[in-house]
Amino acid sequence: MHYQFLPNASVDDADILILPIAYEESVCAKEGTKKAPLAILKASEQLEYYEEELMWSPMKYMQVRVCEEISEHEKIASFISTLPLKNRLLLSIGGEHSITPEITSKCLDTKSTIVFLDAHADLRESYQGSTKSHATPSHHLLSQGHKMIMIGVRSLFESEATRVVSDKNIEYYSDRELQKSTVKEKMLHSLSAIEGDVYLSIDMDVFNPAHVPGVGTPQPGGIDWYCAIDIIERLFFNKKIVIKGVDIVELVPESSNVSQIFAAKLMQKIISFWGKSQGCDTKEMCGAQMSIEYE
């Protein structure tokens, strides 16, 4: 598998490590998220190399490695343990949201901050008999000792609703409240104020289903493309933090290809903003794009 038709660098030479995780076990609505990693990478072939937001071509300066695909939950943490993560961006593509705690168990120390974009709170201790359900990642992330900033939630169980207002380790911005400009600015200001290690987790159902129809459990409402870009910008240009990883989960590929393109473009923005924040644009122009011919 490749990103944007680009050659795969060695693990040691890569600036960007893309980890496809085709895990799907606890889906309770529309199935197909295990097909998302390949579909998103395939959709990346339709993107221009030039990233118009920051006005540069990131892959002229950076190398990328698409790692081997993982499909078993119990292999995620052990594989990540083998990766050289320092000074690199780990970008995981799911797969269902239950993969996130497995990733953070190896790439984060305790007392880090998780920025969690999701239509659902995902705070259950177990769901339908499974403690590793896609409805449980927030609970496990908090159990790992992290703080959470939850953004875009618009579907939650009664006990979850109680917890988001009572747990001092949760900062909560509901989708409805984010429609107010003052609340959105408060959220962005909070992202600018974070210090320390940060992990960004994006469940694709956080977006309005009019923009991303290909998700397993869509909900009315949702954030839009530009809100997501604002969030990424505030995070990646916060000089007080270190981005330890990002995941994009819960996409279900669909026939129009709109959802896959949306996710692939989101990946490109994340790569671009991370690269600029690391000063990659000031380095020698010897990235992956320089080794291929293109029109």
Account of the protein in words:
This protein has helices at 36-43, 76-80, 99-107, 137-143, 158-166, 181-193, 225-236, 258-277, and strands spanning 16-21, 64-66, 89-94, 113-117, 147-153, 170-174, 196-203, 241-249. It has 295 residues and is α/β, with parallel strands linked by helices. It has a single domain, classed as Ureohydrolase domain (Arginase, Chain A, 3-Layer(aba) Sandwich), CATH 3.40.800. An 8-stranded parallel sheet has the order 2-1-3-8-7-4-5-6, with helices on both faces. Helix 1 crosses helix 8, helix 3 runs parallel beside helix 4 (137-143) and helix 6 runs parallel beside helix 7 (225-236).
The CATH topology name reads Arginase, Chain A
Largest sheet: 8 strands, parallel
Radius of gyration: 18 Å
What's the level 1 CATH class?
Answer: Alpha Beta
Structural class per helix/strand content?
alpha/beta
N- to C-terminal distance: 21 Å
Question: Poorly predicted ranges (pLDDT <50, ≥5 residues)?
Answer: none
The topology string of helices and strands comes to EHEHEHEHEHEHEHEH
Major β-sheet strand ordering: 2-1-3-8-7-4-5-6
Q: Shape from CA axes?
A: globular
The level of helicity is 25-40%
Please state roughly what percent of the residues sit in beta strands, choosing from under 5%, 5-15%, 15-25%, 25-35%, 35-45% or over 45%. 15-25%
Number of helical segments with 4 or more residues: 8
> How many beta strands in the DSSP annotation?
8
Classified in CATH, the superfamily is Ureohydrolase domain
> How many structural domains in the coordinates?
1
Mean pLDDT: 96
What CATH architecture would you give? 3-Layer(aba) Sandwich
